Amino acid sequence: MTDLDIDFVRAQFPAFDEPSLQELAFFENAGGSYPCRFVTERLARFYRERKVQPYGPFDASRVGGEEMDQARIRLAAMLGVETDELSFGPSTSQNTYVLAQAFRRWLPEGAAIVVTDQDHEANSGAWRRLAEDGFEVREWKMDPATGHLDPAKLEPLLDGARLLAFPHCSNVVGEVNDVAAIVRLAHAAGAVACVDGVSYAPHGFPDVGALGADIYLFSAYKTYGPHQGLMVVRRALGEALPNQGHWFNGDALYKRFTPAGPDHAQIAACAGMADYIDRLHASLGGSHGTPRERAARVHDAMRRRETALLEPLLDFLSDRNDVRLLGPGEAEARAPTVAIHCDRPGAALAAELARHDIGAGGGDFYAVRPLKALGIDPGHGVLRVSFTHYTTSEEVARLIAALDHVL
């Protein structure tokens, strides 16, 4: 098999067996996905059997620490990085903030950094605030009509810059940026590349090693896991940046950017995300390969399924002259995070869809800067419908019918 079996996929998610959710077609996945059963089972087991200080000599403590280590070991291998290059924190926003404090001390006085106006505020705001400390903040601007980030416009901004922070995919524009090519431009200019992968990783774990990013961040609660932020910091950079953790943990790369004690249970539960990827790989007929190869095969299967699901929705929207689709109209060029603007507020449209048992979102989604750059009043907002590989074609059809009625 080369395609995902949707019945098998949905059987891995307790939410689809929950009676109170049976009528809901869930299209707010960009705000957070359903957790898979491997995660919920590991989390419940940890709280039941291992909820003690980990890494001690007695069994409950020792096993708890081993389960935390297993999450880091397995996920790092799937991401194509070394085990200690992966850190866990309470959220991507907080991980980015901690990194910004490290860069504030590490960058030369007055150094230039480049951000974009396509970003969710989590990966942009912390870097922009460095202007308060005398750093030069340059903005790589989107095309105001399409939302596209043109690499040709980036090159002059990188002249003399020390850091580039940009998204793998915007949470409202949806276009998948060519991360590997953009990272090469940054490195050629002598800049560090920090990639916000929050809106991309739910659609297949990226091969961070192949992308070449110095930093890659995403959120476990959007990749079928618990509420944790995952942060890859490659060794050369991580060892050069000043330690943000306890001074006595400074020699441990994965502890250098974790100022507070980690959430033991949720880190251990993150191993369930690796369980899920491996189970999907087995369902595709695979039984061999490295963790990195298995994750890549599942990534491609997820993307194929989501692209096929996305095409009828984009066709429906392209046939209407009363809505504006943000981002590309081609399914292959984007993630299935679809924001539309029309004369009615996004929140009002989401409320109407809810009466049709469609779970969607309306508002600015912390993408205030991108919406303004696209000429949209953030107070008016957009309607955002977002899905993943576990969405069914029947649910997409229900969404289209409800949209047709509401619009």
UniProtKB/TrEMBL annotation:
Which controlled-vocabulary keywords does the entry list? Lyase, Pyridoxal phosphate
Q: Which GO terms of the molecular function aspect are on file?
A: lyase activity
Q: Does the keyword Ion transport apply?
A: no
Pfam families xrefs:
Aminotran_5 (PF00266)
Q: Is Nuclease there in the keyword field?
A: no
Q: Which domain of life does this protein belong to?
A: Bacteria
Instruction: Note the InterPro entries from the entry.
Output: Aminotrans_V_dom (IPR000192), PyrdxlP-dep_Trfase (IPR015424), PyrdxlP-dep_Trfase_major (IPR015421), PyrdxlP-dep_Trfase_small (IPR015422)
Q: Which residues form the Aminotransferase class V domain?
A: 26-242, 300-399
The molecule here is called Selenocysteine lyase/cysteine desulfurase
The uppermost taxa in this organism's lineage are:
Bacteria, Pseudomonadati, Pseudomonadota, Alphaproteobacteria, Rhodobacterales
